[in-house]
Amino acid sequence: MLPMTQSDGELDSLVRKRIRALRVAQGWSLGELATRARLSQSTLSRIENGQRRLALDSLVTLARALDTTLDQLVETAADDVITSPMIDGAHGLMRWPVKGDPNMTVVRQRMTEPPPDNPSRMRAHPGREWLVVLSGTAILMLGHRRIRVETNQAAEFPTMMPHAIGAEGGPCEILGIFDRDARRGHQRDNNDGDPQGSRQ
User: Fold this and answer.
1) What is the C-alpha separation between 108 and 30, in angstroms, rounded?
2) Which residues contact 155 (CB under 8 A, 6 or more apart)?
3) How many CB atoms lie within 10 A of CB 53?
4) Tens digit of each residue's pLDDT, the chain (200 residues)
5) What pTM did the predictor assign?
6) How far apart are CA 11 and CA 123, in angstroms?
7) φ, ψ for residue 17, nearest 5 deg
8) Cα 58 to Cα 151: distance, rounded to the nearest angstrom
9) SS (H, E, C) the chain
10) N or C: which terminus of the chain has fewer CB atoms within 10 Å of its end residue's CB?
């Protein structure tokens, strides 16, 4: 067996601390997690305290019991924890990819125009969207509904329903989370040169 390097030792310590932190966050005693993971309480105690070797089969069992994945249990802090936005000045957008899930994108947009009056300018496309109004008041047109979304309120909806969003009574700023299909739908709209009120 190869000797453990310092970085291996740091990972070992991190995983043990993470197991304990996740257990405590769930409000579980050693005995409760041990029962869920089908381990003895003394084995779990020795794992958390560094007195027992971390075995892969035990880590898999503990990850399941803690409702997480093995990857999340053993992941290390990345050097690149800061992500700068991609700025689309023409559409008033800032966009950030979500590193942990490449299918998701976070978008911040400032809106000044009301949503379109013409239903033909509403868009439908595959995907799901979630948004929160950071400031001001937004109007979400969803099918035949006109929904007022105020500061700190959030909306989540299927994008196959015709929709559009705009500002009411002055500028508003929104932060949206788009899955891959929703993001593609909006990129197509932007490339077609649609005005701001027909997009989100």
Assistant:
1) 43
2) 130, 131, 140, 147, 149
3) 9
4) 334 444 567 777 888 888 888 888 888 898 999 999 898 888 888 888 888 888 888 888 888 888 888 887 787 665 566 777 888 877 778 888 777 777 788 999 999 999 988 878 888 888 888 999 999 999 999 988 999 999 999 999 888 999 999 999 999 999 999 888 887 776 665 554 443 343 44
5) 0.57
6) 48
7) -65, -40
8) 46
9) CCCCCHHHHHHHHHHHHHHHHHHHHHCCCHHHHHHHHCCCHHHHHHHHCCCCCCCHHHHHHHHHHCCCCHHHHHCCCCCCCCCCCEEEHHHCEEEEECCCCCCCEEEEEEECCCCCCCHHHCECCCCEEEEEEEECEEEEEECCEEEEEECCCEEEEECCCCEEEEECCCCEEEEEEECHHHHHHHHHHHHCCCCHHHCC
10) N
Q: Where do we find the tokens 């993470």?
A: 18
Token pair of 158, please? Answer: 């299927």
